[in-house]
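Hi again,

Forgot to attach this to my earlier email, sorry! This is the prediction with 6-chloroguanine bound. I've pasted everything inline since the attachment limit keeps bouncing my files.
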Amino acid sequence: MRIDVISIFPAYLDALQLSLAGKAQAAGLLEIAAHDLREFTRDKHRSVDDTPYGGGAGMVMKPEPWGEALDTVTTDEAVIIVPTPSGEVFTQRTAERLSGERHLVFACGRYEGIDQRVMDHAATRWRVEEISLGDFVLNGGEVAALAMIEAVVRLIPGFMSNPESLVEESHGDDGLLEYPVYTKPASWRELDVPDVLLSGNHAAIAAWRREKAVERTQDRRPDLTGEM
Ligand code: 6GU
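Structure tokens for the complex follow:
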């Protein structure tokens, strides 16, 4: 997979050289490049924003640099992802779908957002998705892009050193949150690991884990259980 990120703060994406994405790049499964939006300006002040038509607070990102940047980095097979709190909500299903793509371009806006014509024009040439991480507001799309990239990249076939760990995790196919996990020592600060996990009875362990996953989901995320 190839991932390009366009931002006025490309240094945010330095974190991708660490950990998961760093390993995937080293293994040749992934190529990530961050681009500075200001490199695509043509005026001497390298300006990327201006006041909103219709008035209101804040600034809006100008269309011209975005047009130039997307024309430069986007290939025919690419999907353009625009992180925005007004997008469709990103879920594990989104991550799974995107992990099968060959090229993702993240267009990270700041301020009050990007001139809508950028997305409208891009949508005439490429697939474009405006995606949100949830119901809260970040100052820009960079941190959201980092989160989405990590969620996608760990699903690329051949990427995880232990792919079994993908089978049983929160937001997996059973729609349940992950059960609680424990490791040694069996007793710590007078708290004991549940006996069943030490029993060696695999059927009993599976049943206990399922019960805890259901309890936890009902308690923390009743919206996932179908009943609100
Ligand atoms: Cl994707 N972007 C921004 N700026 N804020 C957010 C978000 C995205 N998702 C939740 N809040």
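The chain has two domains: 2-153, 168-225. Helices lie at 19-26, 63-73, 92-98, 116-122, 141-153, 202-220.

That should be everything now.

G.
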